[in-house]
Amino acid sequence: MRARRELKRISWFAAVFSFACVGLVAQSSAADTKSTMQLTSTAFAEGQPIPAKYTCEGKNISPALKWSGAPAGTKSLALIADDPDAPMGTWVHWVLFDLAPAITELSEDVAKSQHVAGGAAQGLNDFKHLGYGGPCPPRGAPHRYFFKLYALDTVLGLKPGSSKADVERAMEKHILAQTQLMGTFKR
Q1: How far apart are the C-alpha atoms of 7 and 90, rounded to whole Å?
Q2: Which tens digit of pLDDT belongs to each residue from 163-187?
Q3: How confident is the model over 77-115, as pLDDT tens digits?
Q4: 131 pairs with which residues across the strands?
Q5: Handedness of CA 187, 167, 121, 101 (dihedral sign)
Q6: Which of 7, 83, 86, 165 lies deepest, with the highest CB count within 10 Å?
Q7: What is the Cα–Cα distance from 105 to 122, expressed in whole angstroms?
Q8: Does 36-185 carry CATH code 3.30.70.930?
Q9: In DSSP terms, which residues pair with 92 in a beta bridge?
Q10: CB neighbours of residue 41 within 10 Å
Q11: pTM for the complete prediction?
């Protein structure tokens, strides 16, 4: 009798352990899908300073960006660049959306017009203009600039000039994967 109870207890623990492992594998697979995208730039490496050329102290042009690993089912890409270290709260430097999934890079100096290559539309940044506005922090400590790329299961269809908040709201429940590249700048 005692052996039978012990066997039942071991069977119960084995079932619980198996169920937990299946859950961990499922979570791991979902996390792997989210982390397969990569975003890089020839202008700066992750965590490194952004050259002045791409800031208000230089030509103020967008850096070249390249990405890979968008998952199957991606219908469009969105890019948001912002500075969470700005004194008045997060400062938006670039909003780009509805980029065709076949596009895997943006060349340096993307035009500051409503639409760019790949069918993408440009949103309004916090400098109150379309397209990229480079780092321009107050003098002092370095700021971090996050270039965030999102793979979406839909085309957002928003109007050019839409805000970061508009794009984020439209992206809710449509993000298949995301990645980011962070650079710094100090004046």
Answers
A1: 58
A2: 999 999 999 999 999 999 999 999 9
A3: 999 999 999 999 999 999 999 999 999 999 999 977 777
A4: none
A5: positive
A6: 83
A7: 16
A8: no
A9: 82
A10: 22
A11: 0.80
pLDDT band at 29 (very low <50, low <70, confident <90, very high): very low
Counting every residue, how long is the chain?
187
Cβ neighbours of residue 7 closer than 8 Å, sequence gap 6 or more: none
Rounded to whole angstroms, the Cα distance separating 38 from 178 reads 8
Q: At 127, list the tokens.
A: 């400098």
Tokens of 27: 């979570």
Contacts (Cβ under 8 Å, ≥6 apart) of 34: 177, 178
Cβ neighbour number for residue 48 with a 10 Å cutoff:
12
Q: Are 107 and 64 in contact (CB under 8 A)?
A: yes
Kindly tell me if the per-residue pLDDT of 69 is higher than 80.
Answer: yes
108 DSSP β-pair partners: none
What are the φ/ψ torsions at residue 166 (nearest 5 degrees)?
-60, -45
